[in-house]
Design brief:
This protein is an alpha/beta fold and 191 residues long. The protein has 5 helices and 8 strands, in the order ββαβαβααββαββ. The structure holds iron/sulfur cluster.
């Protein structure tokens, strides 16, 4: 699969200490996208699901993993690989939050086995393309048109509490490629 980055501990995109995974590839071109560097799939980002799992287990073997946040790019451009990944990581935690520029109805209408598997096994989907004019500095949502769908009702209470008690924050990671800023950024972040 084509994965641009994996970071831990991500504390600003869902409850607890999470593994964040950013899949590359997106052709929507939303104005003000905070991750335009992830639009292109790149050969150097190619990694087998097994090797990605090894990296994830290296983290989870020695650190608490409360959940996963999967973003991009557009994660649903790689449904087969993503479904295989989700099957494996749900053993560590099934609090799996996924971002998509597609709406939930669009994903369901695809009638694709891998896409259905993802939707049936994710805890939360945040859907809809980013619209810069509707960026209201919300927690978890880049713009107010996006919806937070709790797909696994077992996580309703946790996410309701998280959404009511937490403020939007940004977290910076120092990586080999420089500083990576994670979270829901304010309008104009990339200007
Ligand atoms: S869907 Fe997401 S990654 Fe793709 S251009 Fe829009 S904001 Fe950026």
């Amino acid at each position: 699969m084509n994965v641009a980055r994996i970071l831990y501990p991500v504390r600003v995109l869902g409850p607890g200490e999470r593994v964040g995974i950013w899949l590359s590839g997106c052709d929507r071109g939303c104005k003000g996208c905070s991750n335009p560097e992830l639009w292109q799939r790149k050969p150097e980002f190619e990694i087998s699901t097994d090797n990605l799992l090894r990296l994830i287990h290296k983290i989870s073997d020695s650190h608490p993993v409360d959940g996963f946040t999967i973003s991009g790019g557009e994660p649903f451009y790689q449904p087969q690989d993503l479904s295989e990944l989700i099957k494996e990581i749900s053993v560590i935690s099934d609090d799996i939050l996924i971002y998509s520029g597609y709406k939930l109805e669009e994903l369901k209408a695809m009638n694709d086995t891998a896409t259905d598997f993802i939707l049936n096994n994710a805890a939360v989907l945040i859907d809809g393309a980013y619209i810069e004019e509707l960026n209201d500095n919300s927690l978890l949502r880049g713009s107010s048109n996006q919806k937070i769908h709790i797909l696994n009702s077992g996580y309703s209470t946790l996410y309701q509490k998280y959404l009511s008690e937490t403020h939007n924050q940004i977290q910076n990671f120092t990586t080999a490629d420089g500083i990576v800023s994670v979270g829901i950024h304010r309008k104009g972040f990339n200007d």
